[in-house]
């Protein structure tokens, strides 16, 4: 009996980005988040509603067709709300020497408690975790973070702080159908 591919509910995606981690990365923003951070940068991604339902196999095939990627970045929404499927995708990417960056409103210590289905499996596939809720009053111009309470966790050594030095804070991408902004707004 053939195993069915896991499903992802994707809010948006970019085939190539330089502002969402070191190197050139594919970025997935997942749909749905249990947090409601005031001034959330992606308020359209908060509700648990079907957006773009894709299989892990489909995303993996798309990833493989994009040349010269360093890895993938997961944001949202809340990636750990879809941890089981993202762990499978991340595993495939890391098996091909790609790196995985992930943002989460949860703190690392919460994720390690294994109370969220697939959380530990996804953590085991992440090279750099950026954890913590965005707090508007603590907005800061820090690499890959919107507020100073958010922490960087270099989980595997494949990504180091030095890899973050020249990452652009913001990026605008023109596709055939829309103009996409990504990155971290300044605190001024």
From TrEMBL:
Task: Indicate the segments annotated as coiled coil, or none if absent.
Answer: none
GO MF annotation: an example: ribonucleoside-diphosphate reductase activity, thioredoxin disulfide as acceptor
Q: What is its EC number?
A: 1.97.1.-
Coiled coil found in the keyword field = no
One matching Pfam family: Fer4_12
UniProt entry keywords in alphabetical sequence = 4Fe-4S, Iron, Iron-sulfur, Metal-binding, Oxidoreductase, S-adenosyl-L-methionine
Describe the family membership recorded for this protein in Swiss-Prot or TrEMBL: Belongs to the organic radical-activating enzymes family.
User: What is the documented function of this protein?
Assistant: Activation of anaerobic ribonucleoside-triphosphate reductase under anaerobic conditions by generation of an organic free radical, using S-adenosylmethionine and reduced flavodoxin as cosubstrates to produce 5'-deoxy-adenosine.
Q: What name does the UniProt record give this protein? A: Anaerobic ribonucleoside-triphosphate reductase-activating protein
What organism does this protein naturally occur in?
Dulcicalothrix desertica PCC 7102
């Amino acid at each position: 009996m053939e195993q069915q591919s896991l499903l992802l509910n994707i809010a948006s995606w970019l085939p190539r980005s330089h502002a969402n981690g070191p190197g050139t990365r594919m970025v997935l923003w997942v749909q749905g988040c249990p947090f409601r951070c005031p001034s959330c940068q992606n308020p359209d991604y908060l509700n648990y509603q079907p957006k773009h339902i894709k299989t892990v196999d489909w995303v993996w095939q798309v990833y493989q067709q994009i040349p010269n990627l360093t890895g993938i970045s997961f944001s949202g929404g809340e990636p750990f709300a879809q941890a089981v499927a993202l762990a499978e995708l991340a595993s495939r990417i890391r098996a091909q020497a790609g790196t995985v960056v992930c943002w989460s409103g949860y703190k690392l210590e919460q994720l390690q408690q294994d109370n969220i289905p697939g959380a530990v499996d996804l953590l085991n596939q992440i090279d750099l975790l950026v954890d913590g809720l965005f707090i508007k009053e603590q907005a800061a111009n820090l690499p890959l973070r919107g507020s100073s309470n958010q922490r960087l966790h270099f989980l595997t050594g494949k990504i180091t702080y030095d890899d973050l030095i020249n990452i652009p804070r913001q990026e605008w991408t023109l596709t055939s159908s829309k103009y996409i902004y990504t990155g971290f707004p300044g605190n001024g």
